[in-house]
Amino acid sequence: MKYVERYFNQLLPVLAEYQFTNGGSVIAFQVENEYGYADGDKVYLQQLVDLMRNNGIVELLVTADGASTGTSGSLPGVLFQTANFGSDPAASFGVLEQLQPGQPLMCMEFYPGWLDHWSESHHTTDPSVFRSNYEATVSYPGSVNLYMFHGGTNWGFLNGANNGPGDNSGFQPTTTSYDYDAPLSEAGDYTPKYDILRELLAQYNPVKTLTPDPPELVEREVYPTLALDGQLTFNDILSRSIDPITSDTTLSMEQLPINDDSGQSYGYITYRQENIDIAAGSTLTITSHVRDTVMILINGVLISNRLTSSDNLNDFGYWRMEDSTITLTTEDLTGVTLDIVIENFGRVNFGNLYQQFKGLTQDNRVYLNDQELTSWLIYPLQFNKDWINGITDWNPVDLDFGPVFYNATLSLEESEDGYRDTFIDMSAWNKGVVIVNGFVLGRYVFIGPQQTLYLPGPFLQAGDNEIIIFEQFQPAAEVKFSKDAIFSNP
């Protein structure tokens, strides 16, 4: 709790000024979210309440959980309970009426759609089903907060994940797109659900108001297809721009002595063995479950399998396998460099939240045949903006198998009206990361369902716009744009 206390002691006095009792607009504070699905530690919840009250928060304190969790995520008589659901409001509100007789009813998260995980089908909810469930909620009567009203984007590496067991085998990384099949799409488009909301809110709002016409949408742009300008191999990137950390043992991202000793939060990490001999038929074993994806390189050449289907997620190099083993070579190798490249594919925000160390963690040991490997060079690949913008001297393109960095240039003339939004179509690529003008848009994975990355117009500038693609496996020959989002079902 010491970190929460340190943060809240700075944050809460600022928020306290905006409370309704101080002339502001804030009428309630949510203390926890869906904690009923976790431990339900009442001491912890009371500590949060005390922190808030001691820092000047006087408004209503609430929690939000699925109704099936009862009071496990709340403090009866202390915290006002709300429910999260997307259907059957009578069931959830019925539970709240039993837990809090005579109290107002509130759905804190009403789901008009759902989020996507990589390798799943794209989630949609029929507008007629949405209408029925939403109308049943507001007519109950109950108050409603939509989650989500406007679809969004998990920029950079900030996508979350779900998890089951603590061993990482149930890890489900969320896509970069958080479109959610919401009433307003990721790109801000009106959908049939938006029209339904306008109609029902006008019908059930007891205070009749004049509803303005919605703003006119600006059509998105399909910018010209771009040829690739240059490439840099993974060895080029490591040798040119990243200073390694030496360690007798492997260190997780979070244990690295960087960023004022706070470690590495996101991106990739490489564990290197130099000048080693590998006999024909040798195997490499990583114990426990990896966190989260792994590529094996020898002298900069990928020798682990490329991602060709969602079935590969059950093989070496992915989180589902425990104590996974790969054969390294069919011939004797002398004095080679062995790289283990690991990706943090997302931090868990629902499910088992414990031990979220990434890279080679305390659970992992690495064996070459029966010999545990020690004495590592460790390279953090964080994709910081200054580092990205410092990548220069690109080599000619020859479309190597990855991991390889590629760049392309979108040249735009000066425009007083700015530049229109677009989507980058990555459906012909395999798996990796897209960066525009030093900003990490997010990930792409060909197994879907997401096939495009949303690029807002304000991210673009007059003149040259540099697009960098870190492709882990197999590149395409060009960069294409799309007017609309593209989803595929695996």
Automatic annotation (TrEMBL):
GO biological process, one term: carbohydrate metabolic process
Alphabetized GO MF terms: hydrolase activity, hydrolyzing O-glycosyl compounds
InterPro entries: BetaGal1-like_ABD1, BetaGal_gal-bd, Galactose-bd-like_sf, GH, Gly_Hdrlase_35_cat, Glycoside_Hdrlase_35
Pfam families: BetaGal_ABD_1, BetaGal_gal-bd, Glyco_hydro_35
Residues of the Beta-galactosidase galactose-binding domain: 403-465
Domain Glycoside hydrolase 35 catalytic: 1-203
Residue ranges annotated for the Beta-galactosidase 1-like first all-beta domain, each copy included: 263-382
Superkingdom, natural source: Eukaryota
Protein keywords: Glycosidase, Hydrolase
UniProt key word Hydrolase: yes
Hydrolase listed as a keyword: yes
Gene3D superfamilies hit by this protein: Galactose-binding domain-like (2.60.120.260), Glycosidases (3.20.20.80)
Family the UniProt entry places it in: Belongs to the glycosyl hydrolase 35 family.
Record protein name field: Beta-galactosidase
Native source species: Zophobas morio
